[in-house]
Every structure is written in C-alpha cells, then in structure tokens.
Amino acid sequence: TGEITSRSNLTNLLKAFSAFKKRQKSSMQLLITSEQKKIYDGFATNLESYKFRNDVKILTGLTMQENAKIIASAYGMVYAPFYESFGTSLLKAMKCEVPLITSLTGVIPEIGGDAALYTNAENFKEIAVKMMQLFRDEKLRKDLIEKGKQQVQKFNWDNTVSQVWNSIEKTRDI
Fold it and tell me: 3-state SS of the chain: helix, strand, coil percent to 5?
C-alpha cells in the first residue's frame, strides 16, 4: 500500500512473489493498493511481462476506508521499500492485525519493533523466503500479530502530545 513509485521497490516484490508462487503453488494473490491514481511507468511495463500477472491486482484511487478494509483482510503485508521516512502503512497493518514483512530502511525498524519479519529490500530472494516463512508458519504469523497489537499502541496521539510537551518543558529549563 502507498505510492506506486520506483522507491516502492515493486519490481523486487513481483520477483519475490513469483518465487513464492513457484514454490508454494498457492492461490494467494498480491494486492497493491494506493490512494493515488498514478502508477510508476516502469512498474506497469514490468507487470505486462510478468508470468503471474493474473494473480496481481493493482487497486488505485482508493479512499482511506477502502484501503483499510483491504489491509484488514490481508493474510500478510509485504512492505519493503528502498527507503521510508515514516511508515504509516506499517502502523495501519499492525492496527488491522496483519503481520508484516518489511525492509530494514529508514525508520521502519523503530516502527516495526519485534512485530515484523525484516528483509533486505534489494534481495528479492530474501523477500520471497520471508513470504514463504509467514505462509508456512501459522504460529509465527499469530505471534507477529500479537506483537503488532502491542507495538502499534506506542504510536498514538496521547503519546505524541506527551513527548512533544516533555521536549518543550526541557527547553524551558535551559
């Protein structure tokens, strides 16, 4: 979910999903969602020649509510961008009790904590291994969901306001 840009690493996601489909022979589909309508041209071109293109659905122009419903119905979320400055998508997934596979870039480890499987965004084979791990291990999946419920509690407006106020108080004492 999020913007469909070159930074989103969707080509490696397609490669990882292909490796997953070849090994698992499952009926899983890959849903790529965005509240924006624009799709990165290079990605559209890659998708046309992709073997499992019928198992990939691109849903753009979604409302926040539509996007939330799709996230909540997902078996898992793979979000492995090359860089992320905040990670709203991760918080949405944890709030919807969806386990995460994500990259070790930017602020993602701080947001995901121990509630995610981490992968190298540049290595599609590693992403695929994490996808298979999540698919095969229901105990791991449930554990990540429980940890996600706890992790998402750290990110709420009350905590944010409190931290900002504490910072203001500290500067007044200087």
Answer: 55, 10, 35
